[in-house]
Write a structure and sequence with these properties.
Largest sheet: none
Strand content: under 5%
Number of strands: 0
Distance between the termini: 26 Å
Helix content: over 70%
Length: 110
């Protein structure tokens, strides 16, 4: 669900333009590190509890790093939004989330 929310924010004409604008503004503005830090800290604060609850329920190992799970999921979405321009359709979002979930739970095939 969180991956879908991130995709909805980053996809489409407005979302993709907004994502590129955030990166461009941060790269060219004074204090860009602070701006990007605040941007991502706010998003991590929203998403981290989701992974922490999964750890508490025993759905993922206790040594699972919530930030790594989030960065891996969102990274795939931002790659499409910023670099490739490929659609952030539901099939891709679900596949990316399932892949990250399998890796986080140890269910990924070797």
């Amino acid at each position: 669900a969180r991956a879908r929310a991130a995709a909805a924010t980053s996809s489409g004409g407005g979302g993709a333009r907004r994502a590129r604008s955030i990166v461009a503004a941060a790269a060219s503005a004074d204090g860009r590190d602070e701006a990007l830090g605040r941007f991502w800290a706010a998003r991590m604060a929203l998403a981290t509890p989701i992974i922490e609850r999964a750890i508490e329920r025993g759905e993922v190992p206790s040594d699972c790093d919530p930030i790594t799970v989030i960065e891996t999921t969102v990274g795939a979405l931002w790659l499409r939004a910023l670099l490739t321009g490929e659609p952030l359709d539901d099939a891709f979002v679900v596949a990316a989330a399932e892949l990250v979930s399998a890796g986080a739970t140890g269910e990924a095939s070797s």
